[in-house]
Task: structure prediction
Amino acid sequence: MALNVFAVLLAVGQLGLCVPAPNDLGSDLTILVNNDLLGPQSPSADSGIILLTSRSGASAAADCATLGEQLWAPELKTASIQPNLNYLTYENQYRATQQYWIASNSRGPRAIDGEGHVTGVSPHLHLPALCTNSAPFSNISYQDTSTRWQVTVHSNYEYLTGFRDSLSFRFLGIRYAPQPQRFTHSIPYTGSNNQASATSYGSECVQAGVDGSEDCLFLNIFTPYLPAHGGAPAQDLKPVMFWIHGGAFTSGTGNDPTMDGANIVSRGDVVLVTINYRLTTLGFLALDDGVTKGNYGFADQINALNWVRKNIQDFGGDPNRITVFGQSAGAGSVRAMLASSKTKGMFKGAIPQSNLGGGGYGTTYSQYLTIDEEVSQAANPILAATNCSTAHSQVDCLRAVPANTLANLATVARYLVVDGTYLTSDGLDFKHTNLPDVHVLSGFMRDDGAAITSIIDTDNLTTSLNDDGFPAAPIVSSGLFPLPDGQNETLNVFNVTARVATDTIFRCIDQASVYASLTFNTFAPNTYFYEFNRSYQTPGFDPNPPLCDAPVSASHPYGDPSQEYYKCHSGELYFVFGNVLRMGLHLRDGNDIPFSQFALDSWASFARSWNPNPDPGLLKARGYLNTLNELETAGPWLPVNKNSLQLRELEWPSKSIPFRDVEQCKLLGWPLDYFV
Result:
């Protein structure tokens, strides 16, 4: 599939500014990309074009030159721009018979219509115009932020200057809150009609092993569309995907290139927002002083979401079509938002990916501590380690401790708590929560727990389970978790221990959550559920190597995903965001790209329509044939039916399968009806 980069720059008059702005142009700017996720390796990576609104032929050529471009011409030998024209027709922006200015030839002025026919035309016509688009690709180590590619948007009483690459407009390091006093809630930030650069990421929040800052409350916006004057008809605004990073509430950042938004916004035609929020003790400490009640990092997330609702239409996003999504602790944050009265009405979609809960390490991500419990588990050891236990004001004493010292203590605060404001109950109450307008898609990795379980050098299953904190006696005696018969007995034991961990911490609680939401009609109709059975482990988080990596062979030097391996925690991220190649990684086989296209298309479709099955008309218009063929072959992804509990096994090809390990979950104490 070709990568046809199609940028639409709707301009009124000539661009007379060094840094263009939609407001000054009096016109929208839209980048449309027919993106196959191959980046600059694509055979049509040079196919970028810019569309100008209707004007004379002479103005078209001059305005392209003002943009540093020229009128597009077939003689330039770029790849076909037809899928982009088809998409404009599909979206009803123009009819198929619409003509667009292109470069003249020796015979005179020319135009191309929506079906790709090139004809000579009168120079006196007024037509939209197609300019070339030569903005370069960005990647994990390179972004060209020079003035030529910059663009300014007026939002939140600031003039924010970002830039475009070949796929999207990028506004990085936008402040959504001033630096708060330590252990207080952040407040919204409002500009003062100042100029602000949004061409580089803001500081990461303080965390162990990172030179972060307490002044870190920034967000990043990736968008294909910038409307003029912050206003556009609702039908022109794009769905918004609001990403909350994981990292155990102790690490991570919205700046992580794993979740770069260029591919998902260009291929998915959505707006992506990624955020920083305070982490570790600085974000989650609670004390028993009646004032320091914790949840500061969670409140930061809600503050950022409020910023998005207020301002995202300036960046082409629809504030009434926001999907909050996150992975691991980010999924726990999404679940907490579903439970919090503070976020009611603020979003319409939710995608918790690999939410933790149940037993063991995962419990506190879905079952929130009281402040007294948090003080016992976290605050008291922190106070003791900092000599603040007997201070007249414990919080003032802790405010005097260097931030990095707090983040690197042996014990840190990382728990959501029942603070009485942001969280008022100890978990998501499916029976009494009523969110009929919120649509949910959720799921997990087949072997999420394999990345959290330690390999113990033992061939004794009881020893392994006990050492990892699971009740060995009932598990071993049940016969529900049989040992494999592989030659490596240590790995056989690990296999069962990892399965128990996956069930205990992920699968059982997530399946029970879906069942309860269907029982009580907690959310909007049509809940979707998945299990990833293909993964590409992130090098930055690859526990127990090489078990989470596809096995290497002579025919597959980068790994063979068709062979058996553990599909571990975080293994879906490159696929959902379409960033395998952007991260400089290798394609392991011929299915990595088609599968990533399918995963990204499914997530973007859910954000667009609350249905992960993209419209076939859209797929045909944009030339997304791999996803179209997958849906035609495997059938649609069906919502969960309480009377026939099915999930979508996401692999290549995908298929519907029953909920797994239902009896095992019952044995472990997390049955399907746990929340009922």
Summary: The chain has a mean pLDDT of 93. The longest strand covers residues 317-327. The chain has three domains: 4-132, 201-407, 442-668. The chain has 19 helices and 21 strands.
